[in-house]
Design goal:
By secondary structure, the chain is mainly α. It has helices at about 5-25, 25-35, 40-45, 50-60, 75-95. Helix 1 (about 5-25) crosses helix 4 (about 50-60) and helix 2 crosses helix 3 (about 40-45).
Amino acid sequence: MESSATSRNKARDIESEIVSRIAAQGVTAVAKQIGVDKSQVSRWQSKGGLVEKASQLLAAIDFEQPSGLVLFKGDETADLARGLIAMLEHIRSANGGAGG
């Protein structure tokens, strides 16, 4: 069983991740996806709001992200795509240009 300090730290980490993901997508976009006004999403993020309470719940039940889950945000996605394209082009040229 985790100590309450460990649980609080985990809850803060989860809350930070949720808030970061909302920021990455934008409050307006998130609100539109779930059918509420953007002010509601902002209230959820406030001290003592839904995000904080949900984070505490997830920490209490020892919620973990699936192992191997990797998230790319913003410019990282485009950089990754360019890198993968370059790698695939290199492999194709090394194979004499044979397609698949």
